[in-house]
């Protein structure tokens, strides 16, 4: 089901539902090598969302700021590679979203325990915004907030559930967005959490 949520933002509901278990199995392999961790914001707060990455680079934050790093600061090694299944599904979703030339080299993996949230923010660390971001959601549902180019702009809300994919390109790419605190619940594939993958192209 293809639905334009905002200019350039295409929701593919349940696009990876058939592959959800296989994708989560790939996430488990990544996590064995580069575990989930609560990173520290430049302001000194621990994020409620636990994160890891796979790919050529990973998104990291610490007292020095937000950036992409070729090395996992926790292991001192490279991040594990993006599994072919994940890569292929991200590329297929981007094609469906109108981006036939998207070749992601970063996958940020977010884990939301109950109560975890992500405040309104823009994704600007990639530097080249011509590439879209492809997101995939699993496990517990979450309310996603989508605003404008200014933090104070009004927001639209939508529920993201297991297998939903969103391609964020065009003018949606620099919009403010966030996730409200995840409500208590249980999902047979993830237990008491929500998992989100975002595929990005970073040079
Ligand atoms: C809209 N993640 O990792 S995914 C993030 O559910 C992030 O974990 C949220 O925001 C999550 O940066 C939201 C949907 C999403 C991802 C990237 C976007 C929406 C976006 C980039 C630009 C605009
Ligand atoms: Fe974001």
TrEMBL record:
Taxonomy, superkingdom: Bacteria
GO CC list: cytoplasm
Alphabetic keyword roster: Dioxygenase, Iron, Metal-binding, Methyltransferase, Oxidoreductase, Transferase
Any one GO BP annotation for this protein: methylation
Cofactor, how bound (note): Binds 1 Fe(2+) ion per subunit.
Binding site for substrate: 59, 66-68, 125, 151
SUPFAM superfamilies: Clavaminate synthase-like
A GO term for molecular function: methyltransferase activity
Binding site for Fe cation: 121, 123, 177
Fe2OG dioxygenase domain location: 103-203
UniProt-annotated binding residues for 2-oxoglutarate: 110-112, 194-200
Cofactor(s) required, per the database record: Fe(2+)
Species annotation: Limnobaculum zhutongyuii
Protein name: DNA oxidative demethylase AlkB
PROSITE patterns recorded: FE2OG_OXY
Lineage: Bacteria, Pseudomonadati, Pseudomonadota, Gammaproteobacteria, Enterobacterales
